[in-house]
């Protein structure tokens, strides 16, 4: 990969994001380079995937990102760095503007900080979904309740068949931070509307918050 990047004369844009492991609660930074190679093909290559010690302050994140850039000798070749829109990243990029040489940058680094449009879209959609948040939470709870054991899954499937509902579509719990997974969950669950009405009508002390008709 080093040869591939060194042979090209193009600028090399970066994207970076933090990821926290669910089991260890440790933070990792991924840094990816995007550039046009000598054959005029768009290339994307992960430069580094590294553990970042807490606290994840702007200074700590900027230091980790800056080290990666200098290790790859990219400080004079970066037109932009794309990050999500958390406030910490604003501080990170203010530090990066001071650390990176200004002369090679486009307009002295005025536009080096690029905001992730996918993250902006997520924020817009989450704002819209918040209007029906209680209904989504009831649907989410129903998935959690009816999928953890074979016994509950069997009862759900038998109720589906008794209502003439095809239950071949696998039911999957969404990830709250990924709007598309919430959409996919709802797309499946809406097919089970009759099933929820039947199961919700059975006076159960355990399953006591089924999705409502309004949901």
Tell me the fraction of residues in β-strands, as a range: 15-25%
Number of domains: 2
**What is the N-to-C succession of helices and strands?**
HEEEHEHEHHHHH
The CATH architecture of the largest domain is 2-Layer Sandwich
Quaternary: single chain
Radius of gyration: 24 Å
- How many helix segments? 8
| Largest sheet descriptor | 5 strands, mixed
SSE class: alpha/beta
Measure the end-to-end span. Answer: 51 Å
Strand order of the largest sheet: 3-2-1-4-5
CATH class category label of the largest domain: Alpha Beta
Helical content stands at 40-55%
E-strand count: 5
So what's the overall shape? elongated
Might you state the CATH topology name of the largest domain? Nucleotidyltransferase, domain 5
Spans of at least 5 consecutive residues with low confidence: none
The overall pLDDT, averaged over residues, is 86
Which features characterize this protein?
5-stranded mixed sheet, 8 helices, 215 residues, Nucleotidyltransferase, domain 5
Q: How would you sum up this structure in a few lines?
A:
The protein is α/β, with parallel strands linked by helices and 215 residues long. The protein has helices spanning 2-7, 58-71, 87-99, 117-129, 133-146, 150-162, 179-189, 193-201; strands at 13-20, 27-36, 42-52, 81-83, 113-115. It has 8 helices and 5 strands.
Description:
The chain is α/β, with parallel strands linked by helices and 215 residues long. The chain has two domains: 114 residues, Nucleotidyltransferase, domain 5; 74 residues. 43% of the residues lie in helices and 16% in strands. A five-stranded mixed β-sheet has the order 3-2-1-4-5. The longest helix is centred in the first third of the chain and has 14 residues.
């Amino acid at each position: 990969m080093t040869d591939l990047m060194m042979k090209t004369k193009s600028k090399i844009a970066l994207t970076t994001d933090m990821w926290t492991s669910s089991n260890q609660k440790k933070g990792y930074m991924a840094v990816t380079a995007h550039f046009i190679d000598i054959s005029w093909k768009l290339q994307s290559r992960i430069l580094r995937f590294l553990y970042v010690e807490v606290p994840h302050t702007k200074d700590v994140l900027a230091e980790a990102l800056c080290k990666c850039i200098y290790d790859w000798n990219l400080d004079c070749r970066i037109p932009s760095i794309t990050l999500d829109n958390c406030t910490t990243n604003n501080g990170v990029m203010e530090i990066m503007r001071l650390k990176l040489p200004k002369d090679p940058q486009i307009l002295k680094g005025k536009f080096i900080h690029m905001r992730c449009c996918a993250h902006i879209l997520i924020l817009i959609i989450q704002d819209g979904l918040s209007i029906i948040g209680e209904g989504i939470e009831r649907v989410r709870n129903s998935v959690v309740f009816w999928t953890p054991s074979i016994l509950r899954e069997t009862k759900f499937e038998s109720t589906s068949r008794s209502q003439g509902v095809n239950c071949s579509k696998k039911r999957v719990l969404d990830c709250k931070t990924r709007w598309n997974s919430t959409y996919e969950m709802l797309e499946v669950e809406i097919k089970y509307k009759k099933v929820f009405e039947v199961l919700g009508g059975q006076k159960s002390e355990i399953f006591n918050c089924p999705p409502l008709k309004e949901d």
